[in-house]
Recover the amino acids of this structure.
């Protein structure tokens, strides 16, 4: 196979220039890079040994497939996936995303003087993104500040769909969430004690409520040490759940634990969130309803008076339905070769000419596509030798204090809201500078130095799937230091 036949892609092999490591997740390192073709900065996520564990391969395939469908201004965009040199034996993939400056975890730690306009606009974007994702019947299931990318001009984008699940039936089925390892602090109460439940959009709404509260407080709202402590913190704020709510809890021990808790009154939100406007406090209450049947959907939340002037429903908010056929792989046990083939076909979606050629030939033939991958490997090796590989440090970001105007206009265009009414009197000077040097109070290495199976901030994820067993009451005993009948 001569290179000549594939010259369409060969010209692209020098396209990206890798700059530095900017983030690290359990699945790969994220680098900033320059795209010489489109003349813009991008983020490239390098995922090594994608097929080493089939479950990781499936997760990554699901994530890139979902992101190709979920195109929305509030959801991070995949711009390209580098074509591997050969469909048959590639092991690493390189996913090119639009570049964002930082994530909300960093922003929260660097900004203690955000205004109600910031709060409102940040929550508005998260909910608008969530409404879109839920309209496709996709549940993110792992929303936390680190999974909300941010720019210093206050633009936010939801990322990391690795735990996300699409639903194809109208009837939500009860499923055991065997793979569920999302961060406990943002976990809805219905998941504290039992993972045998339906995939429900309300789980994400709860997480957004926690993220919003963290934005207001500057620290996590419910930093539970274990599931029992998580429920304790939740009930400290919201008071004891109603008996009807407790009755709905499927896990018997979790139910008994809540029934025997001494009666608690809800906390005074004006004392817990003194910095928040009344409107912000009212929205938190609706997002953080203990009972998921009382929780507001993302779509309803956007209609809340808190967003008057910002939000107007538009066709852009609604996603096209996903095709069940595209996600059939999720129902089967796949072998490495099958998942590699599916991954390669997904990558071809970003390389139309190569796709045409690949599909029109006998697929058993091994093609060697010209690729940027080998050149990439050299660039990554050089970076790592220079010490700016995965040890890279990204600073926390300050948000502009008076720079919301540009985004508010953008949101008005998207959502159609009339901003002049809701923001009269505010002085806007346009987006201010990007990452400010004096805001470096949270070295990236601390929050990014985690290996697979752990969550950020050093909080370990223990197996919490066995709460139908004695462990739940054991924790309850440890936590309350008093006797129980278990
Ligand atoms: N498009 C982007 N622009 C800038 N930074 C990014 C981008 N995508 C990811 N990052 C940074 O890299 C980090 C890790 O990315 P991501 O969460 O996608 O990886 P992951 O391996 O799926 O992580 P997790 O361990 O949460 O599953 C993010 O928290 C973020 O700080």
């Amino acid at each position: 196979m001569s290179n000549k036949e594939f010259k369409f892609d060969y010209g692209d092999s020098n396209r990206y220039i890798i700059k530095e490591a900017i983030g690290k997740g359990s699945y790969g390192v994220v680098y900033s890079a320059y795209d010489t073709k489109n003349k813009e900065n991008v983020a490239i996520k390098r995922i090594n040994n994608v097929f080493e564990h089939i479950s990781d391969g499936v997760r990554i395939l699901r994530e890139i497939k979902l992101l190709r469908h979920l195109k929305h201004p509030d959801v991070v965009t995949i711009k390209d996936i580098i074509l591997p040199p050969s469909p048959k034996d590639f092991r690493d993939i390189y996913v090119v995303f639009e570049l964002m400056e930082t994530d909300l975890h960093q922003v929260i730690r660097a900004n203690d003087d955000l205004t109600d306009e910031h709060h409102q606009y940040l929550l508005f974007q998260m909910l608008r993104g969530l409404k879109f994702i839920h309209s496709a019947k996709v549940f993110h299931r792992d929303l936390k500040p680190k999974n909300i990318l941010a720019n210093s001009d206050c633009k936010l984008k939801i990322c990391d769909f690795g735990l996300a699940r699409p639903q194809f039936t109208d009837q939500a089925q009860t499923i055991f969430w065997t793979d569920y390892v999302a961060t406990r602090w943002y976990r809805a109460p219905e998941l504290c004690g039992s993972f045998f439940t339906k995939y429900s959009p309300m789980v994400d709404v709860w997480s957004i409520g926690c993220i919003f509260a963290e934005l207001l407080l500057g620290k996590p709202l419910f930093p539970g040490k274990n599931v029992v402590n998580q429920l304790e913190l939740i009930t400290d704020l919201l008071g004891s759940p109603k008996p009807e709510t407790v009755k709905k809890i499927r896990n018997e021990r979790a139910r008994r634990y809540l029934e025997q808790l001494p009666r608690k009154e809800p906390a005074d939100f004006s004392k817990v969130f003194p910095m928040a406007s009344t409107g912000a406090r009212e929205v938190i209450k609706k997002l953080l309803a203990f009972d998921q049947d009382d929780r507001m959907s993302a779509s309803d939340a956007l209609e809340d008076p808190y967003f008057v002037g910002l939000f107007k429903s538009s066709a852009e908010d609604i996603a096209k339905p996903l095709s069940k056929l595209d996600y059939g792989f999720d129902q089967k046990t796949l072998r490495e070769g099958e998942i590699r083939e599916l991954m390669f076909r997904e990558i071809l979606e970003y390389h139309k000419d190569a796709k045409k050629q690949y599909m029109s030939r006998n697929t058993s033939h091994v093609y060697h596509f010209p690729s940027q991958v080998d050149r990439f490997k050299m660039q990554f090796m050089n970076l790592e030798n220079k010490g700016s590989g995965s040890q890279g440090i990204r600073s926390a970001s300050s948000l502009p204090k008076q720079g919301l105007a540009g985004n508010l206009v953008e949101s008005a265009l998207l959502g159609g809201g009339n901003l002049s009414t809701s923001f009269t009197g505010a002085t806007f000077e346009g987006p201010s500078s990007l990452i400010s040097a004096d805001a470096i109070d949270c070295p990236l290495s601390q929050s990014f130095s985690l290996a697979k199976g752990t969550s950020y901030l050093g909080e370990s994820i223990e197996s919490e799937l066995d709460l139908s067993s004695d462990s739940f009451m054991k924790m309850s005993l440890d936590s309350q230091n008093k006797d129980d009948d278990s």
Summary: Residues 1-11, 402-486 have pLDDT under 50 and may be disordered. The pocket of adenosine-5'-triphosphate is lined by residues 22-28, 30, 43, 76, 97-100, 103, 146-147, 149, 159-160, 162 (CB under 6 Å).
